[in-house]
Design goal:
single chain, 256 residues, mainly alpha, two-stranded antiparallel sheet
Length: 256
């Protein structure tokens, strides 16, 4: 490429060149390019890009989590040095496992909800039957949101589940899992609102699975394995959170 052409390259051209050298999932690739489009940087001259301009574009994004996601994407796609805010610790005040079990016990979404509640599945993983042997479900596939095709999951691996659920899971026909993402998502939200008075999204069932493990005394490494997180710090940051009243109660018991 001529030196003049190098000088006039757009952010999109630089990103495409950088990403061509990397082995990444198609969904990640599209996410990087989507960030450039949303921030109106596709045709922006790469040489004129500054931290100030990037921060101005990011300031247009309404939510902290989405702003953080775009900042991470810019780092990866353009190789720019831009500060990325730490993710806020997620805190949930969720119904008990027993309450959620009763909520979905006779629901048409029982197998989907229980796969998230008792195996920590993501919704896309609950829409396709996974290999199951004994009391272990091995997550190695998911159903794509828009195309419904079966693809590799975000993270894979074995998860130990209660024996009664493993038996139910193994006996459930594969076709019973095959529902659309929007259908199950809306169905779970409506069901929890009707039965519990609290509208929950499907991913919160996965969070409840993690919280139940912590409440039962699971170690961080066990939590990491069961949640299929790449790094244990993800498990710690998002799920192992003690409420202030728990800490206060613990301190009150000291010395008594």
């Amino acid at each position: 490429m001529k030196e003049e052409d190098q000088e006039n390259r757009t952010c999109l051209e630089v990103a495409l060149e950088r990403l061509e050298e990397r082995s990444i999932k198609d969904s990640t690739y599209k996410s990087y390019l989507k960030t450039l489009r949303i921030l109106d940087l596709e045709d922006f001259p790469y040489k004129k890009l500054t931290a100030r301009i990037l921060n101005q574009r990011l300031s247009r994004v309404l939510t902290d989590s989405t702003r953080r996601k775009h900042a991470i994407n810019l780092r990866a796609a353009l190789g720019v040095k831009i500060p990325v805010a730490k993710a806020r610790q997620k805190e949930y005040d969720l119904p008990s496992v027993q309450e959620l079990h009763q909520t979905f016990e006779d629901s048409v979404y029982r197998i989907h909800a229980f796969t998230m509640l008792y195996a920590g599945a993501r919704i896309s993983e609950a829409l396709v039957k996974q290999p199951c042997k004994g009391n272990v479900i091995t997550f190695d596939r998911q159903r794509a949101d828009k195309t419904y095709e079966v693809i590799s999951p975000k993270t894979s691996g074995p998860v130990v589940v209660p024996s009664w659920f493993a038996a139910e899971y193994a006996a459930t026909p594969a076709k019973d899992f095959e529902k659309g993402h929007p259908t199950v998502y809306k169905g779970i939200r409506r069901r929890t609102l009707k039965m519990l008075g609290v509208e929950m999204n499907p991913h919160q069932l996965r969070h409840r699975f993690a919280m139940a493990l912590v409440e039962m005394g699971a170690s961080p490494r066990v939590l990491q394995a069961q949640m299929r997180h790449h790094h244990v710090n993800v498990s710690l940051q998002y799920y192992v959170s003690h409420r202030q009243q728990d800490i206060s109660g613990f301190m009150e018991r000291m010395g008594n």
